[in-house]
Amino acid sequence: MEASPDSSPADQRWPWWPLLPLYPYGRKRTLVRELIPDQLWSFEQLQGVFYVAVPIRMTVVRVRGGLMLYASAAPTGEVRRALRDLEARFGPVQSIVLPTASGLEHKLPVPPLARAFPQAQVWVTPGQWSFPLSLPLPWLGFPAKRTRVLGEDGFPHGDELQWSSLGPLDLGLGRFQEFACLHKASGALLMTDALVAINQEPPELFNLDPTPLLFHARDRGDQPLIDTPEQRQKGWERLALFASFLRPEALEVPPLSALLARAWHPGCRDPRSYFGIYPFQWASSSTAAFAALQAQAVDRLLVAPVLERLVFPRARPVVVRWLRELSQWEGVRWIVPAHYDAPIPCSPELLGRLAHAFEQRPWAPEDGNWEYLANLDQLLVRTGVVPSEPLE
């Protein structure tokens, strides 16, 4: 990609914008949706920095005599009240499941959620790790007497749920592993990060506060935040590209001098617009790049590019084998990932088609929108942070 006229090669190689001081993005709001009547509920929040906000989901599952929480959300007062309402109808929270070994956004809410529901058993994926120091789970806030390890100590609600592990994969610093489970009563296959369905239009969650969409819909920092359906759509497309590729091909970083010259203009002098600091500019259509991202999906499902290129670049056989295992399960009707849209219609046949498509198409590309991720992966390999051998 060619540098823009007002950016230097150093700006292109080492974007400085993540180092900017970040202002708090208000209080965390939660959208509660019933996905399958009287069976599954979605508790959705936003996660991210500098308004690069991605929906994250805790799935609440009705089990015999109560509830299971899969992939925790931050236990705000709003979340606790909604869970108490469900407990009044269906019974207490019986189990809290951390279905990933590496997903920090799913790991951090578990200890406070466990404290909010002191009778619930906590189930974690084996191989939990922390950085820079590897600490035991009790030191990270997990209740020692109530914490169980998936697989090693069995599985929660084993007669109602069917469990399968993707991995473990050696990431150098730690492991990647996640557990999917099929809720037999509803036919919902719960996943964490492995597969996603990126919404075509802004998720309903942004109706609580569209600021992230409006912030990224602009082309310059001196433009005010204007709320229109067109701006929301444009902002969503850019957010999805940020979250998928970290630095899409069409994105350029203006030099610090240009950024400061556009700051503090009328209509942008408040924390909501970061005082006009907007360290991005788009060299070409983000809509075209978003359409290309959507085209990668098979019946709306895909591996998130950031995961494919940084976690799975040498592990395609592992992913394909796991999908083929899931395709043998009877009764799959939906997929409910922990990010983006849900529920997504699914079937064993679709899981088989996904496995075949992933096996046949180019895997973990290195050019276009994938270039920045590829450079990161190659840097990690060169420095010995991650292993370079293919994972079978």
Give the topology.
Elements: H1 9-13, E1 31-36, E2 40-49, E3 52-63, E4 66-70, H2 77-90, E5 93-98, H3 104-107, H4 110-116, E6 121-124, E7 147-149, E8 161-170, E9 175-183, E10 188-190, H5 211-216, H6 229-245, E11 251-252, H7 256-261, E12 281-282, H8 286-295, H9 305-310, H10 316-326, E13 334-336, E14 344-345, H11 348-360, H12 371-382
Q: Which short descriptors sum up this protein?
A:
single chain, 392 residues, alpha/beta, Metallo-beta-lactamase, Chain A, seven-stranded mixed β-sheet, five-stranded mixed β-sheet, 12 helices, 14 strands, 20% strand, globular, disordered N terminus
Gross morphology: globular
The percent of residues in helical segments reads 25-40%
Which structural class matches the secondary elements? alpha/beta
Total strand count, please? Answer: 14
- Mean pLDDT over the full residue set: 87
Radius of gyration: 21 Å
Main pleated-sheet profile = 7 strands, mixed
The CATH architecture classification of one domain is: 4-Layer Sandwich
Q: So what's the CATH class of one domain?
A: Alpha Beta
Element order: H for helix, E for strand: HEEEEHEHHEEEEEHHEHEHHHEEHH
Low-confidence stretches: 1-26
CATH topology call of one domain: Metallo-beta-lactamase, Chain A
Strands side by side in the biggest sheet: 1-2-3-4-5-6-7
Total number of helical segments? Answer: 12
> End-to-end distance, in Å?
34 Å
CATH homologous superfamily caption of one domain: Ribonuclease Z/Hydroxyacylglutathione hydrolase-like
**Could you tell me the strand content as a percent range?**
15-25%
